[in-house]
Amino acid sequence: MTDRSTLDLSSRDPDWWRQAVVYQVYPRSFADADGDGLGDLRGITRRLTHLAGLGVDALWLSPFYPSELADGGYDVADPRDVDPRLGTLDDFDALVAEAHRLGLKVIVDIVPNHSSHQHVWFQEALHAGPGSAARDRYVFRDGRGEHGELPPSDWQSVFGGSAWKRVPDGQWYLHLFAPEQPDLNWENQEVRADYRTTLRFWSDRGVDGFRIDVAHALVKDLSEPLRDLGTHAPSGEEALTGLPPGTHPLYDRDDVHEIYRDWRKILDAYRPPRMAVAEAWVPGARRALYARPDELGQAFNFEYLEAGWDAGELRQVITDSLDTARAAGASATWVLSNHDVVRHASRLMLPPGTDLNAWLLSGGHAPAVDEAAGLRRARAATLLMLALPGSAYVYQGEELGLPEVADLPTEVLQDPIWEQTGHVRKGRDGCRVPLPWTTAGPSYGFGPGGAWLPQPSGFAAYAVSAQDGVEGSTLELYRTALRLRRKLLAGEELTWAVDAPDGVLRFDRSEAWRCVTNLSGTAVPLPAGEVLLSSAPLEDGRLGPDTTVWLGR
Question: How many whole angstroms separate alpha carbon 505 and alpha carbon 67?
């Protein structure tokens, strides 16, 4: 285990996260050291120099815990251990030590809403029977109907179908996600105590922060009789529509904040304090509650990710997001891609209103996406994001310009959404295809063998080795942008230009730095200033469509 005295040297600035660039690593798809086709911790450690060279401030590790992968690792069998297929706790300690040596912080995922059905607690609950203390750690209920044959309520799983599963003795347990992910009962004090232990366990091993999965779903209204939801959607912000804030039986209940205030006391006991960021799919005003200084401190803002490629819409989203963060005393967060959504190099080129699932089911052919045009727009969106005040979260592979792999054959799909929806929703595998590091080899350098999801042949052109040192490549654009960003950062404000042309976003970050993004269909004149960086070549000194430029003032 890393010595605590060393940890204090890993960051002398307790607010390092406020304008950090955080790189999300999906461990199973980043780098494979042992050749089994599955990414692992030693593979990540070997590639940390890539992240340090890229210029990010931290890496966020998606779950690496013991799991049967019923939901890509978010079905956690033991939250204080490493999946043997991915390594050991010693491997984790080595990763943290190397990251800190390179000046990188480490953030890990915490999955508190549910466990795996393989967790020792759930197995104990199944054997203990109705009314037992073991079952009280989860949400077990008797069914409705003459013989208890009907689910206890009409609550639906995010992945499709009922959120209840019946066990052999006749009771039902709640699972808001896959049946292999039983929901924990956060009214149970033993559950609360165990997660305090988990936070301390990883903090003691050198972790600098935590990303809290489904942070808005822990506390539920379990009073009898359980409330049916009727026509209300099962998840996301739309589930909260039409109900008074804080009153939905499953999501964003006011009582959840008591948990995070308790967690903040633990996180602040470390020097430096550990940061945390909430994944909370709630409207902005409610999201600010999770980001308060006495709670998690920061919350993901998905409005930028979901916004269309439209100047007016983006300006409003940016303004509202900054206002929400400011009200919470937090900094804003920005993200374009992650392990749950279609990669933005493809998504941003789809016509407004495109049904993304239908597009995936078509193999990415209806409509077809122009990869070159998509990459141009993705590069412009990235430079815009990196110029905004706050933290930017970058998903692995976007620095290579990777598109979505929309044409994965159905027989190789791993996401439980595919099976659980009866082959109606294709799922998220297309953004989780292992990274290409080299232009050749059985898995383009991902590992000495193959890869757990097939990589398209076109990945060779996006490989790190194909872009390294190549002027104008997407990889070099990210490296240059992050290097400049570190030098230019000053304060957490921006000032919108009042005279920007239609379809153009223009703002000043400081007296030395200005960002201009052309979302219109025609080239526009550049304002005065030295061109520091452009996402695409200028057109006779003018800013072309789908292009962002940073100007020195």
Answer: 45
